[in-house]
Amino acid sequence: MKKMIRVALDLLRKTPLILRSLRKVYRTGGYSVFDVATINYGRILHGKNVLVTGGSTGIGFAIAKKFIAEGASVVITGRDKNKLDVALNEIGSKNLKATVWDAGDISIIEKKLDECRLLLGKDIDILINNAGIVNGVQFPNVLEETWDNIYKINHKGLFFLSQAVCKRWLYRSSKRIKKIINISSQGGFVGAAYPYRMTKWDVAGLTQGLGLKLAPHGIIVNGIAPGIIATAMQPGTLNQGENNFSGLNPLGRFALPEEIAELAVFIASDASNFIVGQTIVCDGGFSLK
Description:
- Helices cover 43% and strands 13% of the residues.
- By secondary structure, it is α/β, with parallel strands linked by helices.
- The protein has a single domain, classed as Rossmann fold, CATH 3.40.50.720.
- The chain has a seven-stranded parallel beta sheet, with helices on both faces.
- Helix 3 links the parallel strand 2 and strand 3 (96-100).
- Helix 2 packs across helix 7 and helix 5 (144-172) packs parallel to helix 6.
- The longest helix has 29 residues, at 144-172.
- The chain is globular and about 85 Å long.
- The mean pLDDT is 90.
């Protein structure tokens, strides 16, 4: 009898926790928590100079933070100075610089690359094409303005920045390996009927094309295709607290930006120099469905 009473009292004490867990399951369809392991490579990017577009928040910020920890000097870009200032303060490293830069404005690319050279004291060695915007409007309701706004940042800006950077690398010829990492999306590996996903298809194709064309010149191009990541571009993920559940992939969870950064630092390092033109899908199995 005493044992039954103890069990009942224990259940009563746990009732609030049980109810909270049930509410989380009810709201999201499931419950998932996990830990992200990180690798300390021992400053594997020491001496590397990096440009990360769209680096004030989300995946770009996580990549910048990880690269700084691994010894790189980094310039992050974004359209919002306040967000850039917050990022600078949060990382708090003298090796991190920032510049306000609209990735869709082709006319300022050369000027901004000159500014990056001044901020870093030398040319960049690694370009992370991360800047992007999302709009879920789909066929048959896509407006030309919507199409143009998405394409000018997600693909046109990426293409012309890559071209400008590579021209400098080719002109100034260096024995040091140079790298470009293009951030695509899981949406670039499944059917697409709206501009955002179509830009990500384009980016994955461009990664292959540039990888083949530039490898003989010591410029290695690869990409990463993230799935559902806990960023402002996936606002629902930020409202789930510690619950990382997602029913959209076989793993049953979304990822954290730090997981993409772990992959990015490996691809950016000289440990991956035999990988060329590949876009590595990091989507919890979404694109396998």
